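Input protein
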Amino acid sequence: MENEKILEVSVKAVFISDGAVMFLRTSDGKIRDLPGGHVEFGETTIGALKRELKEELDFEYFAEPFLAHVWTYFSRDGKAHRINIVYGIDVGGGCPQFIYRERDDVELIWLPEEKIKSMNFLSGMEESLFKALALKERMSL
């Protein structure tokens, strides 16, 4: 199994509030990821997103999230190939606080758009963030 190649489909949520996006940050200060996870066999992408958000944040979302972006990640060793489907979720104003339930060393933080521009994200992730923010802005008009 050492040379096994893995293809995964993941769903991620870009939570948007007041021009900021919510991220997972580890106790050592690293900004790691967005809420979400793997699509299980037989699940729809929306079903997987809702399941993951319930498991991770105890967050139930009844409206339809908007599709922000799809991007592909290939690991440096060539063994992992992940397709990331990113949905935007507008949670209104005030940057609500959530508790991350899956790991004790992870907290959820809100980063404003200006801060995101100065950080070093994978290009697909960064594109997802800005597309979600732009789509949300257009939807508000």
